[in-house]
Design goal:
Helix content: over 70%
Number of domains: 1
Low-confidence stretches: none
Largest sheet: none
Distance between the termini: 20 Å
Order of helices and strands: HHHH
Radius of gyration: 17 Å
Number of helices: 4
Structural class: mainly alpha
Strand content: under 5%
Shape: extended
Mean pLDDT: 88
Length: about 90
Amino acid sequence: MPCRSDGCETSNEYEEAADNATRAACDMRTILRRKGLEKELTVETRRWIKRHDKEDAERIAQENASGERERVRLAALDKLSLEERRVLGL
């Protein structure tokens, strides 16, 4: 499931913008982490990353416990043709 900006108590437009910014920051964090550049970030940004990683882990655990991740995975697989599944080795 994609990253979200939880706790944002504003209108849907602002909540969507906050979610999009959070996803972008999370993507950039992943790229910087892969390149070993996370240490180049400001203390505040590294603090945000640490908090975000903790929130992500909690969210993923909750999604796993509720079966939500499995339902989304199966729904995605249902959209694939037999040939697409073969190509992907599924």
